[in-house]
Amino acid sequence: MSMFQIFKVSGSAVSAQSQRLNVVASNLANVDTVAGPDGQAYKARQVMFQTEMMGATGAPGDPAAAGVRVSTITEDQTPGRRIHDPKNPQADAEGYVTYSNVNAVEEMVNMISASRSYQNNIEVMNTAKSLLLKTLQMGQG
Fold first, then answer.
1. pLDDT at residue 36 is higher than 90
2. Which residues contact 81 (CB under 8 A, 6 or more apart)?
3. Are the CB atoms for 7 and 55 separated by under 8 Å?
4. Is the pLDDT of residue 62 over 70?
5. Stretch 3-19: mean pLDDT, rounded?
């Protein structure tokens, strides 16, 4: 694998984790939302990743590198929390208010995981950049 493919692989991971962080932020922003006028509450979204082959030229000794991409963003179909609060203007005929199905603890774990993965891939790119710079410096001397 060439040094330049490292940037492609890490770059794909940074992009995928960035999308994951955006979805987590959206989920956390809607953790306490109630059902809208259509009766449907916000549903948590989850990011699904897929392996993406990149950089294979087919030449001997030039293996393909595997990156990652977001394949889909799915909605969690778990029913939302229902809390009995007949005085709430959003309550249904039975006096229940339906909240989103977002689990704040799970989303915080997802946020920490995505953030660390993002940071690690940035560090990989910085290390590869340092190695390339040192290689160029060796060629100058």
1. no
2. 98, 99, 100, 101
3. no
4. no
5. 91
- Contacts with 63 (C-beta within 8 Å, 6 or more apart), sequence order: 1, 56
pTM: 0.83
Over residues 56-81, mean pLDDT: 82
The pLDDT score that the predictor gives to residue 65 is 84
DSSP assignments along the chain, one per residue: --HHHHHHHHHHHHHHHHHHHHHHHHHHHTTT-B--TTSPPP--EEEEEEEEEE-----TT-PPEEEEEEEEEEE--SPPPEEE-TTSTT--TTSEEEBP---HHHHHHHHHHHHHHHHHHHHHHHHHHHHHHHHHHHHH-
Let me know: does 5 contact 65? Beta carbons within 8 Å: yes
- What digits encode the pLDDT tens for the residues 82-112? 999 999 888 888 999 889 999 999 999 999 9
- The answer to whether the CB of 46 falls within 8 A of the CB of 113 is no
Buried b or exposed e, range 8-23, using 16+ CB within 10 angstroms: bbbbbbbbbbeebbeb
